[in-house]
Amino acid sequence: MSFDVVISGGRVLDGTGAPPYRADVAITGERIAAVGRLAGAAAETVIDATGRLVAPGFVDCHAHGDAAVFDPAVQRAALRQGVTTFVLGQDGLSFAPGSAETVAYVSRYFAAVNGALTVGPLTVGELLGGYDKAVAVNTAYLLPHGTIRYDVMGPSPEPASRDDLARMLRHVERGLSEGAVGLSSGLEYLPGRYASAEELAALCAPLGGLPYVTHMRAYGPRAGIGMAEVVDIARRSGAAMHVSHLHGPADVLLPLVERALGQDVDLTFDTYPYLRGNTILAMVVLPPEVPGAEPGRALEMISSPELDAWWPTLDDVWPRLTVSHAPGLEWAEGLTMVAAAERAGATPAEFCRRLLTETRLEAGVVSARPDEGPKGEESVRRMLRHPSQTGGSDGIYVGGHPHPRGFGAFARFLGRHVRELGDWTWEQAVVHLAGHPARRFGLADRGLLRRGFAADVVVFDPATVGDRATYEAPRTPADGVDDVLVSGVPVLAGGELTGATPGRALRP
């Protein structure tokens, strides 16, 4: 027997939930050729996995690498955690499909989250073509509802007309034909916030088993509002539902999840193992009447007296915000809003207005949750133990001081929540991080170590795997994952990039 690659001597976690077993993994071309005892097998490349676990590459169900994935440092950050696939197009906002004006809008409005692409118009096929074999990780893409709505209706808050819906539906149908793996929405962002459940359900109709992935209209103690809409959209459309970053409080969320499942909703959700979020500052601090989708008007309102009564209502919010992205005011990145304001000789409200104005709403923040502490940690643990959970980092790579989750979430799942806390067994972890998400997004030949499947393989040390990125040093790579293959090609060896870019733009 002769193969291109043999990974020998490790214990295999095949993604089915079976316990680890001693086996070799042989690869020919882009595919797994054999899994078993392969004594005497010859190969051009042999990876000694003695003492390590061998698993299918992990699927990050919620990543904001839409522009950042071309950065080798971002690819290295993902691979050092065993992540071989990014699901992009999250929160209803990304770069395709859209006219030049639409691409420019998304690049500006969501710059602190996705980064920017400046070239438009852009189709889904063209965007996927730009990823294919250009980076070291695979990419899958969700059709972003907010982008589609903007392309058809601009920043209008009005309900979609029948003609508007027909035009949006044509975008969805074409995007699916070009390889999208579902439809996403961001119902706290603009212009997605203006959509009704009826509009969203109509756009879900062509999904055919692929998921509707939603950043809901409300989270936390108000999550019942968001989940009721999810159930309504499922009832109207029959589509599979996937809720983004559903963390806690678990006492509120878990009964909502069980109720939806009891109503025969095909529901999954993703979580990341942290208590803080990361998003655009404007979403956190501006009242709903400020049209963030129209920067000119929004900036006029921010600088005018008409919001004077609003800013004092945020006094409890300022201590929870840390500046992550502040183009032109980089000195503030990594400082809390309170500390940055003190350094600027201003109140937090005054500095926030300056930050929004001088960055033209591009500023980003890491935000602490009100329930941060032991109760919040317990909620995270209870949510990730639910069988409908899948792993997602919600990784943002923009700015000088982003959230550490893009550099550590999957390693933290393994090191802290498997090895230290026992929330999952190793075999359960691989189901949650590989097998389950691959099925959810229609990636039929990924997520398992099985003959004939694509050879996305991660080799990691169960004794040392773990995150090192912190809120103080968020870009620190993880430990314990030294060898990773994508489509049969070594992309990480000895913990460093090999320079190969076999990552595929995955289509269901």
Automatic annotation (TrEMBL):
SUPFAM superfamilies xrefs: Composite domain of metallo-dependent hydrolases, Metallo-dependent hydrolases
CDD domains, sorted: D-aminoacylase
GO biological process: N-acetylglucosamine catabolic process
Domain Amidohydrolase: 46-209, 364-491
GO molecular function: N-acetylglucosamine-6-phosphate deacetylase activity
Assigned keywords, A-Z: Hydrolase
Keyword Hydrolase tagged: yes
Family to which the UniProt record says this protein belongs: Belongs to the metallo-dependent hydrolases superfamily. NagA family.
Protein name: D-aminoacylase
Naturally occurring in which organism (per UniProt): Nonomuraea terrae
Organism taxonomic ancestry: Bacteria, Bacillati, Actinomycetota, Actinomycetes, Streptosporangiales
